[in-house]
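Reminder to self: C-alpha cells first, then the designed residues, so the page reads top to bottom the way the pipeline ran.
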C-alpha cells in the first residue's frame, strides 16, 4: 500500500518539531535552578568558602648593633636610695639617634625599660648610698620591642654620684659634712662655756659641744644616692642587639621628646 507523498512529508515535519521541542524543554529545565522545598531544611547548608587568611609579615634581615655601643638616654622617673628597692622599674627615652652604615637603627624618642637590681642606703657612721641598675628592653617609636642588656657608664646628676662598669651608682660620702658638724658644735660649746666660766668653762663647753656633734653624726645618715628625673645618662650595650630590619625605619631620625627639668635634690 503506498502513502501519498504529501502525507509522508507532513508526518516527517511533525516528528522533527516534537523532537526540537523536547530538546528545548530539557535545556530550560537544566538552566533554571531547582526550587527549594518549602518548610524546614533537614540537610546542612553547603559550606561557604572562607577568604584567604592574611599572611604574617615577612621577616627581614637581622640588624645587629654590636656590644659597646653607647646610647644617650634621659631618665623618666627619679631614683633615690631613700625609697628605692630592688625590682623597681626604671624608664628612659633616647636623646640622640644611633646610626650604622649611614642608616638610623635606633631613632630619637625610643623608649627603654630597666630595673633596680639592688639598693642600699648610706650608713650612719660610714658607707655610701648606692644602687645598681640594668636596662632590659627597647621599644622603637613604631612599637617594635626587642630585648637588650645595657648598663650606665656616666650620669649628669647635678651631684657627686659616680658610676662603675657594673651599673652601680654610688652617692657622695658624708665625711666632710661630719667634720663640719663636729667643728660647729665644738665651737658653739666653747663659746657658751667661756661665757659661763671663762677659760675652764670654754674647755668644758668645747668637750660637751664635740660630744653633741658626734651624737648628731651617729643619728644622721650620710647623703642619699640619687638620680633626679631628667638626668641624662650614657649607657653601654653589654651584648649585641639584634633587630628585624623589616621593623626598622632607616631614614627616620625620630622626634625629640621634651626633657623634664630635674627636681630639687633631697637633703
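Designed residues (267 positions):
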Amino acid at each position: 500500500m503506498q502513502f501519498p507523498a504529501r502525507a509522508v512529508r507532513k508526518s516527517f515535519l511533525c516528528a522533527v518539531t516534537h523532537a526540537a521541542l523536547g530538546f528545548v524543554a530539557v535545556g530550560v529545565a537544566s538552566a533554571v535552578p531547582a526550587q527549594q522545598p518549602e518548610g524546614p531544611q533537614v540537610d546542612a547548608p553547603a559550606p561557604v568558602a572562607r577568604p584567604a587568611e592574611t599572611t604574617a609579615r615577612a621577616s627581614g634581615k637581622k640588624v645587629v648593633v654590636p656590644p659597646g655601643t653607647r646610647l644617650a638616654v634621659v631618665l623618666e622617673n627619679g631614683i633615690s636610695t631613700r625609697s628605692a628597692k630592688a625590682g623597681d622599674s626604671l624608664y628612659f627615652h633616647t636623646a640622640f639617634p644611633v646610626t650604622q652604615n649611614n642608616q638610623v637603627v635606633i631613632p630619637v624618642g625610643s623608649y627603654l625599660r630597666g630595673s633596680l637590681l639592688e639598693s642600699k642606703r648610706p650608713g650612719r657612721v660610714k658607707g655610701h648610698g648606692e644602687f645598681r641598675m640594668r636596662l632590659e628592653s627597647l621599644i622603637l617609636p613604631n612599637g617594635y620591642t626587642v630585648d637588650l642588656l645595657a648598663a650606665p657608664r656616666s650620669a649628669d646628676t647635678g651631684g657627686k654620684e659616680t658610676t662603675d662598669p657594673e651599673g652601680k651608682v654610688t652617692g657622695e660620702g658624708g665625711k666632710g659634712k661630719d667634720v663640719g658638724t663636729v667643728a660647729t658644735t665644738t665651737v658653739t660649746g666653747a663659746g657658751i662655756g667661756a661665757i659661763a666660766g671663762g677659760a675652764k668653762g670654754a674647755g668644758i663647753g668645747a668637750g660637751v659641744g664635740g660630744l653633741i656633734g658626734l651624737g648628731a653624726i651617729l643619728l644622721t645618715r650620710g647623703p642619699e644616692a640619687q638620680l633626679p628625673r631628667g638626668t641624662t645618662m650614657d649607657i653601654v650595650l653589654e651584648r649585641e642587639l639584634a633587630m628585624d630590619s623589616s621593623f626598622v625605619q632607616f631614614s627616620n631620625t625620630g622626634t625629640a621628646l621634651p626633657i623634664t627639668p630635674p627636681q630639687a635634690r633631697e637633703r
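The longest helix spans residues 175-219.
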